[in-house]
Predict the structure.
Amino acid sequence: MTLKDIELQTGMDQANIRFYESEGLITPKKLDNGDRYYLEEELQILLRIKLLRSLHISLDEIKALRYGNKGLMETLSTQIEILKSETQAVMPAIEVCRTLQEDQMTFDELDGQKYLELMQQIRGYPESGYVKADEDELSQVFHPWRRYFARITDIFVYSSIWMAVLIFVLHVSMIRRGSLWDIFDTFVAVGIMIFVEPLLLNRFGTTFGKAIFGLRIETSEGQKLSYKAGFDRTWHVIGAGLGYNIPIYSLVRLWKSYKLCQEKEAQPWDRYIAYTIKDTKWYRGMGYIGVNVALFVLLVVMMMSQLLPPNRGDLTQLEFIENHNYYAHYFGMSFGNKVLNKDGEWVDKVAEEGTIYYDYGYLEMPQYVYLMDNGVVKGVSFEVMIDEPKQILSSYDAHLLLSSLAFACAQDEMTLFSKLQERIASQIDDHTFEDFHFTEAGIEFDCQIEYTGYEDRAAHFLFSNESATEHAFKLIYSMRQVD
């Protein structure tokens, strides 16, 4: 028999049936799909429980009868004395207790349906024939939006953890990640949840988001879930609740979960646990907003931290090179098969098998010259001179930008939310193949460009003028600290 069948035949609520299962009074078989299958034995036990609860016998007494720790006759005698001290409304219950005593029944012999029908025939007994005890239910929270926002907050927390790993451990450039990576990050956040949430439920009985709304998850005995029980619950939440984050299917599962809450039905993963809420006071909503704003600010700060170079303050030559290569990686700037090594020399990359490099224009790699003072870099310059005619010349904006940021962003003026990088990048981008001069962060930047025999017909490229008799290109760039 299914749970619905048992519900119809016993007249009990599903919440009561699940509660008695959680208390170990019945042990239905669990099918592969997670549903329960009830045998005739479970049906009879539930009818006996229904009968005895209608006689106001406590759950602890019923447990003692179920496990053979106490006899039914003894329990009935005690219960009759208890009922005598109650109001006249319980007189029908006393009459049934005495009938059971006369029939000399044991718990295992008790025909619950027979005596329940007898109770309905007794004048003055409630029409339902069953004195329902509210405490014979596992607590559930039927606040769909509070539960949803708590879950979203938890996923936001796990996403923040993953973001911190990407930025501070794996050193991934966040500005170069596309929308497909965002989808991947969401799956990783859910993966973190699978292992972290059961631990939180096991240790604290709640999670980050649930704590904000005063939500707790416990066993029917009021104990914290075991890690395994928490893991099983979280796994079912991800599948049946979030639809494994699969687009469209996820929305379907969320809608079904919402409808169950509206209908005051327990979610599939909560049917055998107690889900409670402390209160629904207004400040919990404010707490939710505050926490999410704080998490958002944290994410922004973590991403902005990538704008700072690894070396700050006075730089050695090696530290300047490290800053230069850091920004090259951060912005995804590549110079074909060339890379700047720790000695400041452009060397060939060790290419992976099958890698092909394409050059879209001639680019003579500049040699950086350092102005040093007691081992500290006080200025950096480079010069490029091309006397032979080339069909296409590439601009040196990338070199200008990387060297400028490597030096200027190490200064004290560069802060987490500084616009220094944007100002430097704007100056360079607005003066491609043009002279410029400006001062930022106590550093004077100067660029002089001369060329003949070439035409500026496309962004970042000079094209050879075939009718020209002379071709030459010259760039002199310097930056130095000023008092």
Observations:
- The longest helix spans residues 144-169.
- Confidence is low (pLDDT under 50) at residues 353-357.
- The longest strand covers residues 376-386.
- The two ends are 88 Å apart (CA to CA).
